[in-house]
Amino acid sequence: MDTTAKQASYVIDSVAKAVANWTVDEHARLNPQMPERYGASWRADWIGHTLAQLHMLAQAVAVRSPVLFANSVRWTHESFEARGITEADLKQNARCMREILEKELPPAISQNALPILDASLTSLPVQATDTGNQNAGAQDAGESLVKEVVLKYLTAILESDRVAAESIVLSTLDRGLSVPDIYEKILSPAQSRLGQMWHRGEISVADEHFGSATTQAVMSQLRPSFKRADRNGRLVVGTSTPGDLHEIGLQMVVDLFELDGWGVVYLGANTPIADVVELLKRRKPDLLALSVSTALMLRDAGELIETVRADHDVAQTKLLIGGPPFRSVEGLWRELGADGCALTSTEAVKVGNMLVSV
Amino acid sequence: MSDTLLQKVAAGETAAVAACVDAYGGLVWSLARRFLDHPSEAEDAVQEVFIEIWKNAARFDPTVASETTFVAMIARRRLIDRRRRDARRPVNESTPVDELSIPSPNTLDEIDIRDEAAHAASALGRLKPDQRRVLKLAVCQGWPHQLIADRLGMPLGTVKTHVRRGLIKLREELQADHHKPQLNESGKEAV
Ligand code: B12
């Protein structure tokens, strides 16, 4: 990651609240009817939205990616429109934010952010996208069994019926699906769909939490049916970025490495950088698999990679990276300094094998 | 080649802008807490102060005052301004620092400010590591509590407790030696 871009990103995060306050003041000055239109909590709501945009802008600045920010803006617009907030207001808010950034921040900082913001303003409106998992999902699979199971699984989750949800998925083993199939064609698309519904305000946080917990429970129950290849003597350490609480994608990735015969050390979500480096020193793996689940973690992921690369005991460890942000931004993994990237768990194993055989 | 942080900020060095936050975050927010009653107001004010400091960096003259003095002076003026503004909401304009003309500090001022910086640093140092980390993110960097909770993998309640208890503890420590600055009627600080 470019040092100057990283510093500018950090500064934007440091003053995001002041910038958000002024942005909303300016927005309300231009639109005196905001309180009336958006109710009692209008100010807090708009400050929350502006802050979220600024934190995402800061990440886009760190990795110098207008696409990353434009995607996030589109994604936000989709959910806001579903909640009755107009495109015109969102755009005006973005224009006010631009004005404040230009007026208030030192040019050394704002010049990193303004082109990114401008690109997002000119590219709107664009068709809404889900920045989440749209990989080999049920749609592309074209398999009616898979479609039916995803639907039934989601229905059971929305009815909070964990026993039914579990048995729907586990029964597919008898119907000939493999563990990687279940991961990629049933559980991933189901999680993605849950995310989409939550994002649009169609389901609650509780529904999403229940669904994720059920998916994790199903994954544990699949372990006894793992058909592992012979051990290949390779070791992979799987970790999330510090602060990243998503663990299901990474869990799938390391499970498939395990099926492929690799030794696996799974560190799960939110591991501090120093502990990752210490473990790398101790276990000397062939591969570090790093999961980045939201674009808000990109600067920290870059930090982790830089720390690994700066420690000459572990600097040579091959580094494979993956997660939703890499789906929408071409070449982002290179910008962060990884050796390779994969978008799904099956692809992760292929790329991992390639990286260590070089 | 410029040598102080503020001179580098004025020269347009990105790294110096970021370094300012690290170097003076503790001082600025300890001042903000002394001037403003609510932690969330202090958080906002700290960020506004930094923006003001960067804007005025070119006016810093090392032959007149130390950088710490200059920073503390801008902070105080901005905080007085904010307190005055809050007292008669919803006015939304601020007195430009230019109009307040930064005086060359007298010796008392200089000593006072140096004291403040040292106190703030040592009071921060006496907090528990977790508390210090959370406070730095919340106050010096202005992160929302939810983001800190997410990033540090701490429950939201713990983050809020750290911020609240940390601020109370700091305030106690700082007040052990200091009194809250008094404003006279014109809104200027009474010496
Ligand atoms: C469940 C969930 C959560 C749960 C996680 C629970 C848990 N125990 O894991 C909780 C509630 C914690 C959560 C929180 C948040 N989430 Co969330 N979450 C999701 C959701 C709905 C499902 C995630 C999941 O399980 N996916 C299934 C797995 C299998 O997919 P995956 O993670 O993409 O992994 C696959 C690939 O990416 C790849 N892969 C993953 N890791 C790796 C690693 C390597 C090395 C490789 C090669 C490949 C690879 O392989 C995997 C298998 O194919 C997604 C929606 C979605 N569409 O995915 C949002 C989503 C990831 N979350 C999102 C957001 C924004 C958040 C929050 C910031 C929300 C908020 N405002 O608070 C917080 C952040 C918290 C934090 N600090 O991390 C966004 C991210 C958008 C973006 N591009 O940045 C998403 C995409 C939702 C959306 N569409 O808006 N979330």
Describe this structure in words.
The complex is a heterodimer of chains A (358) and B (191). Chain A is built from 18 helices and 5 strands. Mean pLDDT of chain A is 90; it is low at 125-142. Chain A has a 5-stranded parallel beta sheet, with helices on one face. Chain A folds into 3 domains: 3-121, Phycocyanins (Globin-like), CATH 1.10.490; 131-225, Methyltransferase, Methionine Synthase (B12-binding Domains), Chain A, domain 1 (Orthogonal Bundle); 235-357, 3-Layer(aba) Sandwich (Rossmann fold). Chain A is flat and about 65 Å long. By secondary structure, chain A is α/β, with parallel strands linked by helices. Chain B has 191 residues and is mainly alpha-helical. Chain B folds into 2 domains: 1-86, Orthogonal Bundle (Rna Polymerase Sigma Factor, Chain: A), CATH 1.10.1740.10; 101-191, Winged helix-like DNA-binding domain superfamily/Winged helix DNA-binding domain (Arc Repressor Mutant, subunit A, Orthogonal Bundle), CATH 1.10.10. Chain B is 69% helix and 0% strand. Chain B has 9 helices and no strands. In chain B, helix 2 (14-35) packs across helix 3 (39-56), helix 2 packs across helix 4 and helix 4 (67-87) packs across helix 6 (107-125). In chain B, 42% of the residues are buried. Chain A binds chain B through residues 3-4, 7-8, 10-11, 13-19, 21, 25, 51, 55, 104-109, 112, 242-243, 245, 269-270, 296, 300, and chain B through 9, 12-15, 17-18, 21, 43-44, 47-48, 50-51, 54-55, 57, 92, 140-144, 147, 150-153. The complex binds cobalamin. The site of cobalamin (B12) has 42 residues of chain A, from helix 11, helix 12, helix 13, strand 3 and strand 4.
